[in-house]
Design brief:
Beta Polymerase, domain 2, three-stranded antiparallel β-sheet, 8 strands
Length: 216
């Protein structure tokens, strides 16, 4: 049995779009019963806004600060891409960086895709592990530890990386062990940026006192 709606289902489409900041793709619309004629009709009437090829937005859906990020993520492919680098740090509020582009990471097999305007696409030979991904505001992003080392490797300023490390540790978004494992796969510059902050954090932790039972 097909999972494509027999006729346009606006409620179904709204449910899909509401999980994506009001955006939806042509394929998602098709599964909600909207063929190209219906899409064209509602685009001309203004009910749907054409964002870029293959991507639309509900006109009356409330805007949010992350609309541009969500649009770029969906345009590249939500099943393949994650928001990463400085853009992920921004969504996590882990630094004062204002990304000049929406950074996205995709598998190397998709390296030929054309990035949306305002987006930068990075490729990776190793798919991100489940523990290297998380969801923020409905958008799939790289984890704090992965985002920090990616941003460091990508050339982000030392003071911003130090701030991101300190805040991630303080807020429990990453552990020293997670960051050190992430750093171990990168080059010398990344280690030099991140390891000093980790060392200071470990040195500042209070010692674990032995319990009376341990001293008997």
């Amino acid at each position: 049995m097909s999972d494509i709606a027999a006729k346009p289902d606006h409620g179904y489409l709204f449910d899909v779009a509401s999980e994506q900041h009001g955006y939806f793709t042509v394929d998602q619309a098709r599964h909600c019963g909207f063929g190209w004629r219906a899409l064209l009709h509602h685009s001309k009437s203004g009910r749907f806004i054409s964002i870029r090829r293959g991507l639309y937005r509900l006109r009356d859906y409330p805007s949010s600060p992350h609309d541009e990020v969500a649009a770029s993520w969906l345009a590249v492919g939500k099943d393949h891409a994650v928001v990463s680098h400085e853009s992920a740090l921004d969504l996590l509020n882990l630094s004062d960086m204002i990304p000049n582009s929406v950074h996205l990471t995709v598998p190397r097999s998709r390296r030929g895709l054309i990035p949306p305007v305002g987006a930068t696409v990075h490729t990776t030979t190793e798919p991100l592990r489940p523990d290297e991904m998380m969801t923020v505001d409905g958008i799939r992003i790289s984890s704090a530890a992965r985002s920090i080392v990616d941003a460091a490797e990508g050339g982000s300023g030392p003071e911003q990386i130090e701030m991101a490390v300190a805040q991630a540790l303080n807020r429990g978004l990453a552990t020293v062990g997670e960051l050190r494992r992430a750093v171990s796969t990168r080059g010398a510059r990344v280690r030099q940026l991140i390891e000093p902050t980790l060392a200071r954090t470990v040195a500042s932790e209070p010692p674990i006192l032995a319990s009376p039972r341990d001293t008997v």
